[in-house]
Amino acid sequence: MRIVVLVSGSGSNLQSVIDASQAGDLPVEIAAVGSDNPDAYGLVRAGTAGIETFSVPLERGADAEQRADWNSRLRDAVLSYDPEVLVSSGFMRIVSAEFLDTLRRADGRAVPMINTHPALLPSFPGAHAVRDALAHGVKVTGCTVHQVDSGVDTGPILAQTPVEVRAEDDEATLHERIKTAERTLLNQVLAQIARNEHGLR
Ligand code: GRF
Fold first, then answer.
1. Distances (CA, A) of 116 to 59, 85, 168
2. Can you spell out the DSSP letters for 97-123?
3. Residue in 182, 183, 185, 189 to alter for ligand 1 test, most ligand atoms within 8 A of Cβ
4. CA–centroid distance, residue 11 to ligand 1 (Å)
C-alpha cells in the first residue's frame, strides 16, 4: 500500500513506520514524507531512509485566502506521489473540507486520510491533548488512530490503546509513554487498512 506521511516535528512515529516497512514487517511503501515545516526533523529521518520529501509552509497569520491556497498546494504536492492513503503523524495543521473532498487519485478514487492523536478521543481533542488530560486528572488516557474529517480530531475512530496515568507523570513522561503506544497502534492500523479491514480502500 502506497502512502504519503505528513509530519510537523520530530517524526518518531514516522520512524517506526519507516523501520517496519523497511524490515518487511509492514506491507507499506512510503512514497514521500511532507511537512508544513521545512526544518522538521521528520524530513531528515525520511531523507536518511532514502525517502523523497517535500515541504509546503503556511505563512504565520495567513488569512482565509492564503489558507485556501496552502490547502490546494499541499493537496497537489501529496497527490503528485499518487498515494492510496495519506497519514498525518504528528502533523499539527488542520486541513480544509475542500482539501479532503478533492484528495482524489487520477482515476477519481478518494484518498482516505488518517491521523494519530495522543488521547482517547472524543476526550481531549486539539493540540494539547496530553496537557489537557493531565490537567483534568484522568487516571487513564491513551492514543487514537482515526480517519480525518473536516473537524478537529472528530473523524471516525479506527483503533485506540489505553495508557495509565502515573502519579509522578508530567506532560513529557506521559507523552513519551503514549507515543510508545502510538507507534505500535499506527503500524497495526496501517497493516489493517492494507488488508482492507476498515473498508477504506
Ligand atoms: C504524537 O503524539 C502525535 O499524536 C502528536 O504529536 C506527536 C508527534 O510525535 N500529534 P512525533 O513527531 O511522531 O515524534
1. 24, 14, 25
2. HHHHHT-B-TTS-B--EEEEESS-TTS
3. 182
4. 7
Q: Give the per-residue pLDDT at 192.
A: 98
CB-CB contact of 10 with 41 (8 Å) = yes
Phi, psi of 93 (to 5 degrees): -125, 150
Q: Which of 154, 141, 164, 162 has the alpha carbon at shortest distance from 113?
A: 154
Q: Give residue 201's pLDDT.
A: 80
- 63, 44 contact by CB (below 8 A): no
Q: Whose CA is closest to 95, among 201, 8, 194?
A: 8
Residue nearest to atom 14 of ligand 1 (CA): 12
What interhelical angle do 171-194 and 129-136 show, nearest 10?
120
The cell for 135 is 490537567
| pLDDT per residue as tens digits for the range 36-69 | 999 999 999 999 999 999 999 999 999 999 999 9
- CA pair distance 118, 92, nearest whole angstrom: 12
Q: Is this model's pTM higher than 0.85 or not?
A: yes
Q: 159 has which bridge partners?
A: 145
Q: Give the three cell numbers for residue 174.
A: 506521559
